[in-house]
Amino acid sequence: MSETVSRTHQDALFCxxxxxxxxxxxxxxxxxxxxxxxxxxIDPSAGATYDLNHRKHGTAFILGDISRREVREEIxxxxxxxxxxxxxxGPPCQGFSQVRNHARLxxxxxxxxxRDYVSVIGKLRPRTFVMENVPGLENxxxxxxxxxxxxxxxxxxxxxxxxxxxxAAAFGVPQNRLRILFIGVRRDLGIAPRFxxxxxxxxxxxxxxxxxxxxxxxxHRKSPETVRSLAKLLDPASVALVTVEQAIGDLTWLxxxxxLVRKPSNDPIExxxxxxxxxxxxxxxxxxxxxxxxxxxxxxxxxxxLRSIPQGGNFRDLPEELAARYLSGKKWGPELGRETLSRKYxxxxxxxxxxxxxxxxxxxxxxxxxxxxxxxxxVREFARLHSFDDTYHFLAGDxxxxxxxxxxxxxxxxxxxxxxxxxxxxxxxxxxAASHSRQLELPIPAPHVGEKVG
Length: 454
What we know:
Layout: H1 3-8, E1 13-18, H2 24-31, E2 34-41, H3 44-54, E3 60-63, H4 69-79, E4 86-89, H5 112-124, E5 128-133, H6 144-153, E6 159-167, E7 178-186, E8 206-209, E9 216-219, H7 224-233, H8 244-248, H9 278-284, H10 300-308, H11 379-385, H12 399-407, H13 412-441
Parallel strand pairs: 1-2, 1-4, 2-3, 4-5
Antiparallel strand pairs: 5-7, 6-7, 8-9
């Protein structure tokens, strides 16, 4: 690391972001007081988004495949001799789903990028690290996968590593999003790993569908904790738990393009409605214009179906006549040899409920639809549900890429909670080291007069 960067960020904690994508993990850690020295990803569109939003903070972005030696060397050069406080990242782990006998999972060919993640930790020896991934890893193969990852990440005992599944919704993200975190702390620091804590982790309200169809009610245990959680969820002045409407309700005026426009707009527009919740005000921040707000065009068939689905409903709510594959006579998609929608549409046409969290966003624009207007969400609304600020712009890649960049990202508010926990761990380690140092520096008392020495 250059001396200039060190002086500029002398009060910050130093971070390296591997598999950074568009930068949600880095953004949350930045909000928690970290300086990301460098980040890397193989996706050029996600990389361009990352660079656009993080170059101004002094982060070097490295585009390329981390399994290539020259890319790793570029990462090491960007870090320099500076000790890293944390390495963060979510390496792809496709090979973990193919467990065979007792073969070491880290050696599976599909886990190449996971091996690279582990090897970079071993090379740079950060004080801590965080690995984020899908929650299915916890119980895959009866827990063998989790146990193998924990073993790999200890690096022959150099790190203490623990894991836990957390829901981002408990940390102010308006989205139910379960993720598993592996947190490692270098053993010489003398501090055990710990995880972000939320008073709502065990009391998140559940929204139940009633037999009448469109009626919903909140199910929760009649305890003070769950009653308080529901009050927080439904309070627009609170940012502790956030509903869909509290997240994107100020953007309901947006409408689909009249014509099919394949290229997304990079032009800003003016806000046409005032914020109606604390969360909206927080996400707007200092933004004067609204980016990523063009609404994708939508098929007539989809509009007809969405109008028949209640808020919070999905494909299963469609009457028989609307389950036909083609409603308007216009053909779309591949021919499936059937006249009705297939079972793969089980989770399709999901209409958000305004008074609850969003379902987990994936990489597709049509994974959820607007609760009030028969349309898809804009990239900005996707970003709002993922807790990105309106000042965080997605201007690289085609329309599909921009949704994918958000869907693959760690929600910044969730990342911020993780970052604050890592910061607290490091602070405790520094205090412990200072205490040991003071004990070593204590003077040896002089002997009393007449006392024999030795």
